[in-house]
Design a protein that fits this description.
Number of helices: 6
Largest sheet: 9 strands, mixed
CATH architecture: 3-Layer(aba) Sandwich
Helix content: 25-40%
Mean pLDDT: 89
Number of domains: 1
CATH topology: Rossmann fold
Low-confidence stretches: 5-12
Strand order of the largest sheet: 11-10-9-12-8-1-6-7-13
CATH superfamily: HUPs
Structural class: alpha/beta
Strand content: 25-35%
Radius of gyration: 24 Å
Order of helices and strands: EEEEEHEHEHEHEEEEHEH
Distance between the termini: 94 Å
């Protein structure tokens, strides 16, 4: 009598975890003003939106990657107060699985990155995506700081992100051309135009977003490295002078006497 031998193989399935860092920005049509001797931004009457670089590129690319592999977990993280929960819900409506909100308000890039890093360390994400910058402060610094705090490689200004197993193929803009990088996950990447195309939440996504988890986390004891001393609006645009084509001498005089390089 022959004994049959049965072999059991354990298959390791790679289930990617993605974290997308989202933020809010004033709508570009909002009137900008300051208060308290120009030390605080006047928020009354301002329409807040999901920062376009985070939404259109980082988040949508993460959604596309999840659509290719439905086992992918897609989490969102936001640093801010409860007033901005509708902004987070919009991001969930686009396609996030769940979101974290760090319950603190700060304009310090290091503080924001440090709070995000605390959550990222606990969840072992394979891919962390950010927009290249916010459209209000334009500091473009959170992604690099976050990567440094997590001791992970960082690729900025990505125009293409492809994931093949545990390897990321990233194309980024450099002066005079493009650079293609191949690196093992985990990695932090900041995204810009070209990575993905803008999407609009559909009704199904909007309804589903109401019940998706939004976990509020109290901030860790982290000191900010910077503070706002004051804000200043740019000077109003000056009028222009139109010179007739045959008045070359007058144009030369104005260029010498009145033109200013700013």
């Amino acid at each position: 009598m022959h004994k049959q031998l049965f072999y059991y193989f354990r298959h390791t399935i790679f289930c990617m975890k993605i974290l997308v860092c989202i933020s809010k920005s004033p709508d570009t049509t909002s009137k900008i003003a300051f208060k308290n001797n120009n030390t605080l931004f006047e928020e009354s009457g301002v329409q807040w939106i999901l920062n376009p670089y985070d939404e259109w590129y980082a988040l949508v690319r993460a959604i596309e990657l999840k659509e290719k592999d439905t086992s992918t977990q897609l989490h969102l993280i936001f640093v801010g107060g409860a007033d901005f929960d509708p902004v987070i819900r919009k991001a969930l409506a686009l396609g996030g699985d769940e979101a974290f909100r760090i319950n603190t308000v700060s304009g310090d890039s290091y503080l924001i990155a440090a709070h995000i890093a605390e959550i990222a360390k606990q969840n072992n994400y394979d891919l962390i995506l950010t927009g290249k910058e916010t459209i209000d402060y334009n500091s473009s610094s959170v992604g690099g700081m976050l990567a440094a705090l997590l001791n992970l490689p960082f690729i900025s200004l990505a125009t293409k992100v492809e994931i093949n197993g545990s390897v990321a193929d990233v194309t980024r803009e450099i002066e005079g051309g493009e650079e293609v990088d191949e690196l093992n996950l985990p990695v932090v990447i900041s995204c810009q135009k070209g990575v993905a195309e803008q999407r609009i939440p559909n009704m199904r996504g909007i309804m589903a977003a109401r019940t998706k988890p939004l976990k509020v986390i109290e901030p860790a004891l982290i000191d900010a490295l910077t503070e706002v001393v004051s804000f200043e609006l740019p000077p109003p645009k000056a009028g222009v002078k139109l010179i007739a084509p045959d008045k070359v001498e007058e144009l030369a005089r104005l260029l010498h006497e009145e033109a200013r390089v700013i």
